[in-house]
Amino acid sequence: MQDDWLIVQQVQAGHREAYAGLVDKYKDKVYSFLYRMTGQVQDAQDLTQEVFLKAYCQLGKYKPTDAFLAWLYRMASNLCIDVWRKNKRYIKAPLEETMLVERETPERAYLEKEQQDTLQRQIMILGEDYRAAFLLKYMEQLSYKEISEILHLPITTVQMRIHHAKKKLRAGITQEMSGGAANYEVLQN
Predict the structure, then answer these.
(1) pLDDT above 80 (res 87)
(2) Which residues have a Cβ under 8 Å from the Cβ of 165 and sit 6 or more positions away?
(3) Of 70, 97, 124, which residue is a domain's last?
């Protein structure tokens, strides 16, 4: 955190190239979060660039007591929510890429891919507020306090959103998998 503040001070002192260090340090985490939020490679790339541009323009607002990554996540989350509200995208968009890794058998690989696809579809169906809280908790592994700061919400609201997201995911996966049981039975015969 201290290193980030020193880099911010260098950038503010006129050494603009120092900002590239912060971008390199955090671009993969921000992109990964945005990809999970949008489910689209191109949109995640565009939004990642926009987050870093916005952060650069607002470096004067960054407080050294905040974690720089948490500050970036807050911008990314707010930017995503703004885009959703403007054009209602990403609500049910499927992920563009899903890796199919060879496992012991083709049947097992198929079933694992189906489970992964089901989970991703259900995450994409979650409302934007629930999805942001859920992804920050379970994919980015942030604490409730960090999520609370990023989303500007009380900790109890964050906990409630994550609880409801898990409940909705369980119900959606159960419903979707009950229809998929036929796929498993076909593979076993």
Answers:
(1) no
(2) 126, 130, 131, 133, 134
(3) 97
The residue among 163 and 189 whose pLDDT is bigger is: 163
**Listed residues 44, 62, 97: the one ending a domain:** 97
Query: Do 81 and 143 lie in a common domain?
Result: no
- Residue 77 belongs to domain spanning: 1-97
Residue 53: CATH number of its domain:
1.10.1740.10
- Tell me what the mean pLDDT of segment 89-94 comes to: 45
Within 10 angstroms of residue 43's Cβ, the number of other Cβ atoms is 19
- Can you tell me the distance from the alpha carbon of 163 to that of 149, in angstroms, rounded to the nearest whole number? 18
* H-type alpha helices, 58-154: 68-87, 106-125, 128-138, 144-151
Residue 93 has pLDDT above 50, yes or no: no
Name 124's Cβ contacts closer than 8 Å, sequence gap at least 6: 39, 90, 91, 92, 93, 94, 95, 131
The model's pLDDT over 127-165, given as tens digits with 9 standing for 90+, comes to 888 988 998 888 888 889 989 988 889 999 999 999 999
Closest CA to 36 of 178, 175, 165, 183: 165
Q: Do 43 and 86 contact (CB within 8 A), yes or no?
A: no
Cα gap 66→178, rounded to integer Å: 45
Average pLDDT of the chain, as a whole number: 79
